[in-house]
Amino acid sequence: MNEKVVKSSSSNRTVTLVDNATGREFSFPVISGSVGPDVIDLRNLYQDTGFFTFDPGYTSTGSCESAITFIDGNEGTLLYRGYPIQDLAEHSDFMEACYLLLYGDLPNAEQKRRFEHDITYHTMLHEQMHEFYDGFRRDSHPMAVMVGVVGALSAFYHDSTDITNPRHRMIASYRMIAKMPTIAAWAYKYAIGQPFIYPRNELKYSENFLHMLFANPCEPYVINPVLARALDRILILHADHEQNASTSTVRLAGSSGANPFACIAAGIASLWGPAHGGANEAVLRMLEEIGDKSRVPEYVKRAKDPDDPFRLMGFGHRVYKNYDPRARIMRQTCYEVLDELGVRDEPLLELAMSLENIALDDEFFVKKKLYPNVDFYSGIIFKAMGIPLSMFTVLFAVARTVGWVAQWNEMIEDPTQKIGRPRQLYTGATRREYKLLAQRA
Ligand code: ACO
After folding, report:
1. Which of 60, 285, 318, 355 to mutate to test the pocket of ligand 1 (most atoms within 8 A of CB)?
2. Which of 36, 153, 233, 296 is 20 to 30 Å from the Cα of 4, by its Cα?
């Protein structure tokens, strides 16, 4: 493990809570991580005081200890195992980022070769899964297919579902990272009625994914290295993001001892929502709806109206109150892809730029610290690459799989891990007498 990783430490510092009704005082220890805000250890709160905390949306709650990803939302910093996302996007590749997230350190040349080999040789799906797709309607949303097929992996690979066995856990993790592009590409092929394309072992991860998405048996498919590199970079940028909604869903599902395939299927379901991974699809739908630069002010006005539920998709983030560092890289990648494909004067990009400029200058957005997030540009890149709208969130799921499995493994190995079980502030009826049907008015 990286020597810069430190276990959390308790100092002598405490925080005191005073109940002004009774005058009783309760002290709670403060714990420090390696970087980032300290936390108040409230594990004994209920036992010591009889109170629960109330924090809907967990805006102030740390749910676990983790040594995987660090975000400083005010500074716009994102680190995977201590490495800045900018460095990884520029110098690394997705396989290396996967190794880093799973094992805690960058691989040496032999470790990388071995890892890539092992992932490559797990990319094929059990042949019977082929038939599993036939159960879906052709017009199913590919995310619906993803939830179903990934959940079904536990029915096909039960030889790696003993979560108490570290080898089973690692095999299941490799299987999911390896098979996710195949599952995703087949969901797409099924929707458009083309034959499924099998993985090819001489191709790199992102090349193979493009091949399975776009090749057909009738003609050779030539991989464009600029597009393969752009896809690889997008996968790096989306690989992990600490305790977001889908990752917390994976952890919560896994905390009961559920098998890893079922947990990742739960994560995919959570990612689907437009406030999370579904935002890249929503951005493009929004840009298409706006249609023309001249209508941007009208939509900005709507986004600011408290009585209008409309929000600018691709803006705002629970954690980033500064420019999302991934959005900057994505913006650059977007230009590279459009340039390579000879897409000049792409109207959607022009519209996106105009929206970005107006929103970044607008007092409402500046005051609320609403900056473009990673999804603002990814949709434009995917569209230019010929990836259909309904597949956008699927690509996010492929990338995030490694983050989910790394976080799931970390949780299972944590000796303090307990089943996740939040409490509530009950506001329903108090105890009342049951009336027989004949006695009810
Ligand atoms: N457009 C207009 N107003 C917004 C937007 C937006 N995109 N985002 C937030 N606001 C406003 C809210 O109305 C709220 O205003 P208020 O204080 O007057 O009530 C304020 O900014 C704070 O917003 P919250 O929703 O309370 O912030 P939260 O942290 O809960 O939500 C979220 C973050 C869900 C990402 C939100 O900004 C949003 O809906 N954005 C659009 C969807 C999107 O792009 N999601 C992708 C997220 S990144 C990812 O998952 C990879």
Report:
1. 318
2. 233
